[in-house]
Design goal:
single chain, alpha+beta, signal, D-aminoacyl-tRNA deacylase, D-tyrosyl-trna(Tyr) Deacylase, Chain: A, globular, 5 helices, seven-stranded mixed sheet, two-stranded antiparallel ribbon, DTD-like_sf
């Protein structure tokens, strides 16, 4: 899981010109879901979002209070483009979880947030819709958060996958030294040539 979350004063989201959700002060969470994400990553992200100390306390000390400490709201927006990698100048989204699977995962994410906090303070947009999200950023402060299991750079992952594919093709095309020796025809004068003697595992024996 990968997300950006922003400290906001006010953040509404709308679809087709109709406002469908809004919050006052709190966090706007842009969430990207990867192919490899599981319940473990989901639970980690929920804990971090609700407990990170990103707000000031009553005395004005910064980075002292969490969104739960302040009883602020959270607006979540599913954003598969956060799982984008670039191939040349073209964005590629093959690392993002497919829509049907991602929707179920996203709804589970919202459910876990609401269980861990106050349901009425967790808002969301409309999954899969083309939304207009207006964010009045506080600061501005924008924090990038990535789950532990997703720490590998997608570009590096793609590079490693290609390297592995090349290795597999090489092994297929170029037989190993031992296989070349096994497949090479042996001379009748070669004392190591198979003659059906005891110990030759390829020889046929009578029962």
């Amino acid at each position: 899981l990968f997300c950006l979350f922003l400290l906001v004063f006010f953040s509404p989201s709308s679809v087709g010109g109709e406002q469908i959700s809004s919050i006052g002060r709190g966090l706007c969470v842009l969430l990207g879901i990867s192919l490899e994400d599981t319940q473990r990553e989901l639970e980690h992200m929920v804990r971090k979002i609700l407990n990170l100390r990103v707000f000031e306390d009553e005395s004005g000390k910064h980075w002292s209070k969490s969104v739960m400490d302040k009883q602020y709201e959270v607006l979540c927006v599913s954003q598969f483009t956060l799982q984008c990698i670039l191939k040349g100048n073209k964005p590629d989204y093959h690392m993002a979880m497919p829509t049907e699977q991602a929707e179920c995962f996203y709804n589970n994410f919202l459910e876990q947030l609401r269980k861990a906090y106050k349901p009425e303070l967790i808002k969301d947009g409309k999954f899969g819709a083309y939304m207009q999200v207006h964010i009045q950023n506080d600061g501005p402060v924008t924090i990038e958060l990535e789950s532990p299991a997703a720490t590998v750079d997608p570009k590096q992952l793609t590079k490693l996958e290609k390297q592995q594919q090349r290795k597999e093709k090489t092994r297929t095309k170029v037989p190993s030294e031992s296989s070349r020796e096994r497949n090479a025809p042996r001379s009748k004068d070669d004392p190591s040539a198979s003659s059906g003697a005891e110990g030759d595992v390829s020889s046929e024996r009578e029962p």
